[in-house]
Design brief:
The protein has 223 residues and is mainly α. Helix content is 80%, strand content 0%.
């Protein structure tokens, strides 16, 4: 039997209005999770390079656990496992944000560590010789330089986290993939709909990449 398939562009474009409600959820989970993850990353990144050995242990443990396990497993543990410990359900949106936060935080910790350690030791010695305290030297000399060097890696992590939100359809978060699944269930146009889902993700990540390039250029110009 000769079966031919023709891509239905009309069905593809017709799916867009049904997919658009998923964009706010995708962006909310991504940026809220990344904002929390950035704070976590700074804390554990600095603990990771602390001269005090017992402070490095929890940082290393956290980083290795959350870098070494899939984000899908992490969100399933948060959404299905933690309620058994807490004695109450966790909202799917909150679970998604938490998963992005702890996962991105582990990677950002290593980005922070690498950025700070990339600054020449002479910069610290120069700050101290000028009469600055260790904290002032870090705040005004080390951190600004390190942060500029972190921008490309932080941007990459942001893009990865945006794409990771596509996994959260398994817990019912209404992001892009989930919206697509719901629409496909009634139209049976999987190829067309998933192509549009991919295009919308691509539009989001390309927009973020453009913004990050502008920030990176301005940061380099300010050096």
């Amino acid at each position: 039997m000769d079966v031919t398939f023709q891509f239905d562009w009309q069905a593809a474009f017709a799916s867009i209005p049904h997919l658009l409600p998923g964009i706010p959820y995708t962006l909310l989970i991504s940026f809220a999770g990344l904002a929390i993850g950035f704070i976590i990353g700074i804390i554990f990144g600095l603990l990771r390079i602390s001269p005090i050995g017992w402070l490095r242990v929890p940082a290393i443990t956290y980083i290795e656990i959350f870098r070494g396990t899939p984000v899908l497993v992490q969100v399933l543990f948060i959404f299905y496992g933690l309620p058994q410990l807490l004695g109450g359900p966790i909202n799917a949106l909150v679970a998604g944000i938490a998963a992005i936060a702890v996962n991105s935080g582990a990677y950002i910790s290593e980005i922070v560590r690498g950025g700070v350690q990339s600054i020449d030791r002479g910069q610290k010695e120069a700050g101290l010789s000028l009469g600055l305290s260790r904290r002032q030297t870090f705040r005004y000399i080390i951190w600004p330089q390190a942060f500029r060097r972190m921008i490309p890696a932080l941007g990459n992590q942001g893009i990865i986290s945006i794409k990771d939100t596509s996994l959260f359809s398994v817990i019912g978060v209404g992001e892009l993939v989930r919206q697509g699944q719901v629409y496909i269930a009634t139209t049976f146009t999987a190829l067309e709909v998933y192509l549009m889902v991919a295009m919308l993700y691509l539009a989001i990540t390309l927009s973020l990449s453009l913004v990050l390039r502008i920030i990176e250029r301005k940061g380099l110009a300010g050096q």
